[in-house]
Amino acid sequence: MTADERYDRFAARLSAGGVVIDPWLEGSPRFRVVPLVLPAERWRALARVGEQLAAVYDEVCAIVADDPALLEEFFGLTPVQRALWLTSQPLWHGIARADVFVTAEGFAVTELNSDTPTGEPEAVELGRLAAQDHPDLRDPNEGLRERFVTMAEALTAALVDAPYPRAAGIVYPTEFTEDLSLVRLYRKWLTEAGWEVVLGSPYNLGRDDEGRATLFDRPVSLLVRHYKTDWWTERSSAWSDETIPDAAPLTEALEAALGASVERKTAVLNPFGAVVPQNKRAMALMWEHVHRFSPASQSVIERIVPFSSRLESLHAEQVRVQREQWVLKSDFGAEGDEVVIGRAVTQEEWEKCLALARPGRWIAQRYFEAEAGADGETVNYGVFVVAGEAAGLYVRAQPGATDVHALSVPVLVGP
Amino acid sequence: MSARLWGIWGDPYVDLSEVIDTSCFGALDREITLGLAGVETEGTGATLKWMGVVAPWMMDDGHRDAMEAIRAMSDEDFEDFVGLGDDPGSVDRARRHEVTFGDETDRTFTRAQQRLLTLRHGVYFPWKCCYHLLSNERWDDKHSGAGKGFSDEAQEVFPRTVDFVRSLPFTEVGRCVLFGVEAHDHAPLHRDTEPGQALGVAQSINFAPRPGKRFYLQNSADAEPVVVDRPIYWFNDMDYHGVLADPFFRYSLRVDGVFAPSFARDLERRARLRARPAPAR
Ligand SMILES: [Fe+2]
After folding, report:
1. CATH fold for domain B13-42+125-275
2. What's CA B277's distance to the chain center, in Å?
3. Residue pLDDT, tens place only, A255-312
């Protein structure tokens, strides 16, 4: 069998699952067929890093809850972004993904995606197929579904007054075709757990006479939110050269979702409080205000979070001349988007980026060299954390930084 | 039943004439009207009531559904009807009440069956002049362009139209159909997708090279119809839509596919910029 035939067969098995049905991206395979086998000890260590990072972010949120002035002064949140936090805090978490890399000095993380993490369908479906082929090895994602459903149900029970309908809305950008496998997975999980599931966009939200949020006029007790926090709010470019006027927030949708959650009619998952930890400036807070963290968190920050600072807190000349040592990240830039790796651009491009970075919107993070495998690839270990505990693993491999062209890799855990 | 339209990004529909050049529409109209005069077209839409997609308040409007007529036929009438089909022998007469005919089934109507249904059984075909430039097998199929191409005839008879469709901002096209409505006919208010169940708003571009087709959206009996008077647009087919009657022939084309991501992002950005915060209530 040729490699192409082998992939075609694998793709057919994958698509038959009905969740991930796009095994190719622009004509190239999106997945690796041969699983990566992690020693159990390595998986335990990665899991610990994911949990420790989530705990640090929880402390970030506690610090901000104690000192709301940080919202404006440190994070530079817009009025509606502040309102999202204030109506939801201290809740910020349900499911998140910590992106962990291996370096010569140990583990390092690039972020915790705590807002609308992706990769669950790929991880779950690849893991399922790999485990079928290797029954002697363990699928680290085998428990993700149960953990997710348990968390979603506990969150609803805690945040919504009984009785409530066992109906969930999944809210995402329905006008686009991205991330639909995630929607299929969440719909499958919730339906199998006995929930009625309605799919829609924020524009399809409303409230019924009892104040419960509705999606397409159907009342829902749980809103699974796969629509980035900053997309609900005022939107403006992180670059100062773009003449695009700022967009207005989704006022009506927010009135429905926030109103229903404040009145304990509908729970929102992930909570809108994710607007603070999802903001990259949370990592700058970890370093600039490191003294405010517990000793345990301080040691985690020093060990796994690359030094990060608000761009404006650094000496401009230092960042300019130390291009190769820095990575610029905008506050709400999604993975790969609005990330400028100093080593990957020319000095001229670097200086242009620095000149155009809209003040108050960026961090600079210390570049780290991820260990490359024999084939020159870097591996991104995406540790899923559900309610603070590691619950799955999404592995991607790519030469250089992770973007949409990374290959998703099945992963199994050995003895 | 919600009276409001679900629309797209808070708008009733997306006017694409701001972003797609329609200056060729006069020429396309000449090509299409001449071409339609010569090619074989088909009738469609006679089973929408049977399919359960017609707006509930329009179910009793008196226009007879083909499947309803077929189920009510005497055995003799059924024999006449089946005899005009492509493969009369394949229909199990003993189980005739389990067999379905028409759009999106394995037994689409032949021209003669359409005529018989119309002439003897009073069935209403809303679109009597349909032409598939690029076909899908099933409605669910219409967004995936894998292995599909424009028919040789379409490329020969409608070359400028095919070029225009190819120039549209799709990464793949799954279906391209011309829907023509004869004078005095209307297209019944129906929806293609059930709100809350589909994974997304079907990505499609609709265009009418000749102005005058009153395509409209309406989600309740007492709501004002929203007539789409733009030459090219994207609408949410979860909203009930139809065509109002007029005393002349009208047509438009619907192209289904997958939008280029940058095109979709640009449309969204434009919609967000148009939006103003809702007044306090
Ligand atoms: Fe339709």
Report:
1. Jelly Rolls (2.60.120)
2. 34
3. 999 999 999 999 999 999 999 999 999 999 999 999 999 999 999 999 999 999 999 9
**Residues of chain B found within 8 Å of residue A200, distances taken between Cβ atoms:** 195-196
Kindly list the residues from chain A whose CB atom is less than 8 angstroms away from the CB atom of residue B262: none
A294 and A398 housed in the same domain: no
Residues A290 and A270 both lie in one domain: no
Taking the Cβ of residue B156 and every Cβ of chain A, the question of whether any pair is shorter than 8 Å is answered with no
CA atoms within a 13 Å half-sphere pointing along the CA-CB vector of B63: 19
Q: What is the pLDDT of residues A296-325, one digit of tens each?
A: 999 999 999 999 999 999 999 999 999 999
Whether residue A334 sits in one domain with residue A188? no
Q: Kindly report, residue by residue over A139-186, the tens digit of the pLDDT.
A: 999 999 999 999 999 999 999 999 999 999 999 999 998 889 999 999
Q: Where in chain B is the domain with CATH 2.60.120.10?
A: 13-42+125-275
Count of the separate structural domains present in chain A: 2
- Give me the residue from A173, A178, A218 closest to B196, CB to CB: A218
Residues A190 and A335 in one domain: no
On chain B, the residues whose CB falls within 8 A of the CB of A216 are 2, 6, 195-196
ipTM of predicted complex = 0.89
Residue A30 located in a structural domain: no
Task: Assign A30 to helix, strand or coil.
Answer: coil
Q: Is A210:A219 a contact under the CB 8 Å cutoff?
A: yes
Joined tokens for residue A287: 């370093």
pLDDT greater than 70 at residue B75: yes
From the CA of B23, how many Å to the nearest CA of chain A?
Answer: 27
Under an 8 A CB cutoff, do B259 and A177 touch?
Answer: yes
A233 shares its domain with A134: yes
Question: B269: which chain A residues are within 8 Å (Cβ-Cβ)?
Answer: 244, 247
A327-351: per-residue pLDDT in tens? 999 999 876 679 999 999 999 999 9
CA distance A58 to A64: 10
Q: Does B262 touch chain A (CB under 8 A)?
A: no
Beta bridge partners of B127: B44
The CB density around residue A44, as the number of other CB atoms within 10 Å, is: 13
Asked if B8 has any chain A CB less than 8 Å from its own CB, the reply is yes
DSSP bridge pairs for A356: none
For residue A158, the enclosing domain spans 36-61+73-278+384-413
CB-side exposure of A232: number of CA atoms within 13 Å? 33
pLDDT of residue A319: 96
